[in-house]
Design goal:
- The chain is an alpha+beta fold.
- Helix content is 44%, strand content 27%.
- The longest helix has 27 residues.
């Protein structure tokens, strides 16, 4: 499904404020209060879910023109965040206060259309995560994760450790290292210190 990009107009800028956040900044924390709805202008966020044993799994990315539907729904229901959102690439974000975001639902048809389309897209992405964990081999999941990262960062040279990739896929570093070594043997990637280069086919 094509990303439901939001046209950032003057009304949204009047309601919100723009801030820049560095790589690895935790914008949303699980069980944290929702005070504003983030709209990514530049850069990207990754949305994670933490398991009871401390492992994390990547759910989806938030790219320019997109927002976090999970925070929006939690905020509307006066609930806390069920996910963690972390800055993947230095991000410029428009933060719209929760009360203003709720007001836009009543006054701005474009905003409502954006929210529904975004909900549909995220639902499909979450289904893909469930299917991948349940049915796909790990090497397929690793290659898919690297491909998405390369597309988001617009480069095939990814600054990421085996541990970081393992955390995102909800597995161990040792398992990821074995899979990556096999992928390197198959000439799908080139491995170097804290960097994985994806080879285009």
């Amino acid at each position: 499904m094509q990303a439901p990009l939001l046209t950032i107009n003057e009304e949204l800028f009047q309601y919100g404020i723009v801030k820049t956040f560095p790589v690895d900044y935790v914008l949303l924390q699980e069980s944290g209060a929702i005070r504003s709805i983030p709209i990514v202008l530049k850069g990207s966020l990754k949305v994670m879910r933490t398991e009871e044993d401390g492992r994390e799994i990547l759910l989806y990315y938030i790219l320019p023109g997109e927002s976090c539907i999970m925070s929006f729904l939690a905020g509307l229901n006066d609930d806390t965040s069920k996910v963690k959102a972390v800055v993947e690439d230095e991000a410029e974000i428009l933060l719209i206060p929760l009360d203003k975001a709720s007001q836009l639902v009543r006054t701005n048809p474009q905003w409502v259309d954006f929210i529904f389309k975004l909900y549909h897209k995220r639902f499909e992405e979450l289904l893909n995560v469930v299917n991948a964990v349940a049915f796909q081999k790990l090497d397929v999941r690793v290659l898919d994760a690297l491909t998405k990262k390369a597309a988001s960062a617009k480069t095939n040279e990814l600054q990421i450790t085996h541990q970081q990739l393992a955390d995102e896929l909800g597995t161990s570093r040792e398992v990821i290292s074995r899979v990556l070594k096999q992928m390197e043997h198959e000439k799908l990637v080139v491995l170097s210190r804290n960097k994985i280069t994806l080879i285009q086919k």
